């Protein structure tokens, strides 16, 4: 049995993860963490998904993580980095699904992976990771002459934009075209923008309702266009990917990995 802790237990992803872990025969939910002041603190984590499991939601990671081998964290960047420091000190591996990190914060994650195993990926679904491979191939074959635009849509509660997945898609396409995303990204357009510069990669963000997560990469050429789209219809797809990542870490005691490594498609 692999002991798994979940941070952000009462969140949208936290609930999907509790359901997935408590249903997996080879995994045991060993801790459930929430932010200080959470109304869910002190309650049975299983109650959030309809089946009490005896794990009480804690706001004290220092004590709650004592029994855990892997922490799956889908929270906010600051919370993830606090958990990271603790996990690094205790030798607890981490699956990090949180998005919205700055470059500096990402460097901290990279550094911690010298001591512990970390899978860090903005999207844990198998489908999106296959799409990343398709994007690499499409960009290499199409080359210059096709304008690249990335459109993402998410639910009204999402706090970061563009999504981590959209940014990763941009990085993959930029790398395939020999560009640096930091230099060629255009985040939204307004007013008299002038004509589109050919070397740019544009991003457009939509927020509304309960959209789980849609991503489209458009390659627009002369006389034709290609759209590569992924639509998530349930958070279970992210949760199942996170569990695959946790099992992978049981065999990889240190180092920084993403879902391409977990799926063996790097
Ligand atoms: N990598 C992937 O496949 C996916 C990544 N995400 C990312 O995961 C993150 C969470 O997404 P949602 O679950 O939709 O958000 P949410 O807002 O529903 O849940 C976040 C939870 O974290 C908790 N939290 C905040 N600070 C905390 C702390 N210090 N300790 C413990 N818990 C804390 C909040 O109280 C909340 O319950 C976002 O960054 C999102 O972009 C979401 C879906 C898939
Ligand atoms: O916040 C979300 O919901 C999601 N966030 C991830 C991201 O920012 O890419 C992944 C997924 O699209 C859902």
From TrEMBL:
EC number, as in UniProt: 1.17.1.8
Localization annotation: Cytoplasm
Top-level division of the source organism's lineage: Bacteria
Pfam family, one: DapB_N
Binding site for NADP(+): 35
Ranges of residues in domain Dihydrodipicolinate reductase C-terminal: 127-263
Primary residence: cytoplasm
Sites where the protein binds (S)-2,3,4,5-tetrahydrodipicolinate: 155, 164-165
Pathway involvement of the protein, from the record: Amino-acid biosynthesis; L-lysine biosynthesis via DAP pathway; (S)-tetrahydrodipicolinate from L-aspartate: step 4/4
Keywords assigned: Amino-acid biosynthesis, Cytoplasm, Diaminopimelate biosynthesis, Lysine biosynthesis, NAD, NADP, Oxidoreductase
Catalyses which reaction(s): (S)-2,3,4,5-tetrahydrodipicolinate + NADP(+) + H2O = (2S,4S)-4-hydroxy-2,3,4,5-tetrahydrodipicolinate + NADPH + H(+); (S)-2,3,4,5-tetrahydrodipicolinate + NAD(+) + H2O = (2S,4S)-4-hydroxy-2,3,4,5-tetrahydrodipicolinate + NADH + H(+)
GO molecular-function term, one example from the UniProt record: 4-hydroxy-tetrahydrodipicolinate reductase
Record InterPro entries: DapB_C, DapB_N, DapB_N_CS, DHDPR_bac, NAD(P)-bd_dom_sf
Residues of the Dihydrodipicolinate reductase N-terminal domain: 3-124
Annotated active site: 154, 158
Residue sites binding NAD(+) per the record: 8-13, 34, 97-99, 121-124
Membership in a protein family: Belongs to the DapB family.
Role summary: Catalyzes the conversion of 4-hydroxy-tetrahydrodipicolinate (HTPA) to tetrahydrodipicolinate.
PANTHER family xref list: 4-HYDROXY-TETRAHYDRODIPICOLINATE REDUCTASE 1, CHLOROPLASTIC-RELATED, DIHYDRODIPICOLINATE REDUCTASE
Subunit annotation: Homotetramer.
UniProt cross-references to NCBIfam families, sorted A to Z: dapB (TIGR00036)
Name listed for the protein in its UniProt record: 4-hydroxy-tetrahydrodipicolinate reductase
Species name: Thiobacter aerophilum
